[in-house]
Amino acid sequence: MPSPRYWREIPQRYRLEASKCKQCGVISFPPRAVCPECKSRDFDLHKLSETGKIVTYSVIHVPPREFSGHTPYTVAIIELADGVRLTAQVADASPDEVAIGKPVRLVFRRLFDEGKSGIRCYGYKCVLETENV
Amino acid sequence: MKGGHMAGIVGYGAYLPKFRIKVEEIARQWGADPEAIKRGLLLEEKTVPAPDEDTITISVEAGRNALRRAGIEPSKIGAVYVGSESHPYAVKPTGTVVAEALAITPEVHIADYEFACKGGTEAMFVAYCEVVAGALEYALAIGADTSQGAPGDALEYSASAGGSAFIFGKEHVLAEVLETYSYTTDTPDFWRREGEFYPQHGGRFTGEPAYFKHVYNAGKAILEKTGLTPREITYAVFHMPNGKFPLTVGKRLGFKTEQLEVGWIVPLMGNTYSGSSPTGLCAILDVAKPNDLILMVSFGSGAGSDAFVYRLTDRLPEVQDRAPKVREMLEGKRYYVNYGTYAKFRNKIKLVE
Amino acid sequence: MREVAIIGAGITKFGEIWDKSLRQIFVEAALGAIDDSGVDHIDSMYVGSMTPALFVGQEHLGSLLADYIGLTAVPATRVESACASGGVALRHAYIEVASGMSDIVLAGGVEKMTDGADATYALASASDREYEAYNGVTFPGLYAMIARLHMHKYGTTREQIAMVAVKNHKNGSLNPNAQFPREIALDTVLNSSPVAEPLTLMDCSPISDGAACVVLCPLDLAKQYTDTPVKIAATGFATDTIALHQRKDPTVLRAVTSAAKEAYRQANINPSQIDLAEVHDCFTIAEICVVEDLGFVDKGAGGKAIEQGLFALDAKLPVNTSGGLKAKGHPVGATGVAQAIEIFEQLRGNAGKRQVKNARVGLIQNMGGSGGSSVVHILTVV
Hints:
The complex is a heterotrimer.
Chain A: H1 3-8, H2 10-15, E1 17-21, E2 27-28, E3 43-47, E4 51-60, E5 73-80, E6 85-90, E7 103-113, E8 120-128
Antiparallel strand pairs in A: 1-2, 1-3, 4-5, 4-7, 5-6, 7-8
Chain B: E1 8-15, E2 19-22, H1 23-30, H2 34-41, E3 45-48, H3 55-70, E4 77-83, H4 94-101, E5 109-113, H5 119-132, E6 138-146, E7 161-169, E8 175-187, E9 190-191, E10 200-201, H6 207-226, E11 235-238, H7 244-252, H8 257-260, H9 266-269, H10 276-287, E12 293-297, E13 302-312, H11 316-319, H12 326-331, E14 335-336, H13 339-345
Parallel strand pairs in B: 2-14, 4-5, 4-6, 11-12
Antiparallel strand pairs in B: 1-7, 1-8, 2-3, 6-7, 8-13, 9-10, 12-13
Helix pairs in contact in B: 1-2, 3-4, 6-7
Chain C: E1 4-11, H1 22-37, E2 44-48, H2 52-56, H3 61-69, E3 76-79, H4 85-98, E4 105-112, H5 119-123, H6 139-154, H7 158-172, H8 186-191, E5 194-197, E6 199-200, E7 209-218, H9 219-222, E8 230-239, H10 254-267, E9 276-278, H11 284-293, H12 302-307, H13 324-328, H14 332-348, E10 361-368, E11 373-381
Helix pairs in contact in C: 1-3, 4-14, 7-11
């Protein structure tokens, strides 16, 4: 991951900054120039909600290179409380704890390293919401 | 450094990973006697960071919890200081990632600190001083680590991961800093050379000449400075490299078990190094009451201790429930791993690059 | 717009073709098509290839391949739409002939996937690199998520999904050009190693090398070249969001529905009039969603339909008589054109043991990524 491409997405990956259409209220993540719903070009900054639920998921056994050595891991499409959907890993939980509909919370984790000497790449994952933390 | 300017902690928060490994499992791996270890070190289990966690991610989560309790706009924070001995980069600050993630950038001063296990309290000391001096309205100090113990070494039973964050300010203080004191000498009890993966230590030399000398002297001196006796202190928390040392030094300073046990979280947490006494402090803040007095003394090998005395205010009860508590993290949902998984998570197994 | 016919086809065997390079396999297929059609010149060519740059470090395929076919100076365009590259190349060749711009146009596709590149990384470029791939989802992972949701919403079973592979291998065992010309049992599919749950290795189309080419000309010139031309009656193409998570219903491939709707409209037919179809079974679950989204069965009924054998070789609407991507192989850019060749040969009566009786109207559906683009063509006998 070359630095400029990583750095440019920091507001989205670290702070979940999205854009909300001034006209119809649809939230786009990442932010866009044109509202996919009403085609308007006017937006407000919107920070995504941090809780949501699992729409669907899969447990990956054959990973891309950055994630080798760490399988199996779970990826999911989650729907946040404000209606926005994301693709994110489900961290910590074992695959058999994951189910469609379970509540989740977004957390900050290190996604991968660019090899031994490259930059360390951070971003969002989700964890299953438990009663405790 | 004289306190009493009503500057102190405005928000606090801790974060511990969910994975654990038991002392028995590590002992089993190396053919040691688990009961002897547990008796000798007073440890049960320790936290293990997931492969996607590090000092930066722990700092961000602890920082988020501190912000929840502080209830302030992140952009008002004028400094972010992270103390650790496991910063994810050798050269590139932890603080910049943390500040970006917490929406504190760009008008902020950032510096990383290290001093073995007391990087956290160093950050706290500097953050407090800047606020008390009037240079900054708010400053965030974090102590976090994903500490590493050499395989088969005694430190492997205790080296764990976790951290705590404290926002210092003058408005809406929940824990006023009454006094600070630092006691530091050059004592090579524990170190790691550049390029080495595991630290080295001086065995029993880490005891009296290092830990006890600095913690005891710092604790004694700050009590004298404040004119307080041990009986007047509600809770005392010391750096916890294992379960035994903090109880021993606490008794030596004149404290009783009831004063020590709330902050004594090491049997379930392990030694989170720069997060150790700071997280013990958070555990105390989670349950303490207005007007309680707290003594905190850290220890960093090399060696030195930072001591603080806090007086809690009426604001504390309003914010305790705003973020997860340390006891919940220690006793709530957690995942136990075996040694092989632990070694993989801790990068003790050389994977092909 | 003029009517357009396919008058010749050339295809390589699909598989791990160690001894031939990208240009060599494309030239083989191109010369095969040129010879089969009997044309003595080519006015223009289109070649579909997903990512020769990531696989073999080569771009500028138009120039390279025209050169090596012996067609230097001919306008040559490389077309890309991830795994739909071949189908979109075919579409543009069709448009160039239909518009009157050119008479004889070569449409081909090629992919050389086994030369040591990181195929997972290359294939992930069909997804949203920054918001899907960055977060660790793989191609099979995306389709696996579709599968899990499909099972949750419609009660589709794991076995039904696996039956797509069984059916396609049964067909593929009759195809001499297939990468895996052998049948497989349902248990083999269910018990093969997990790739992205619930999908296993046998749910996934393979990594393949291969090339496929066809020659197009105006319909009214076709009989000069062959007694059995096949008409391209319709072309439909649509896009959808690139990221799976941006779609309201991840089990609905809107690009397929939209492209098909346009194709049915142009050909003036409805789905029940399709005699056979080649669809994009990059993963078994894809075929289930596609037969629904093409309107062959109701939404959610795809699993049951496969189980009931509605799409078997001897059924009313055989799907993937070639063996599909699963058994025939999936050299990404070549697939769309290879699908056209299967229907072309079926409509001509040249499909040997796989021949569908009375095949008169065929549909081909090619798709990019997790459904971010799809192109549908309808071919008919003349």
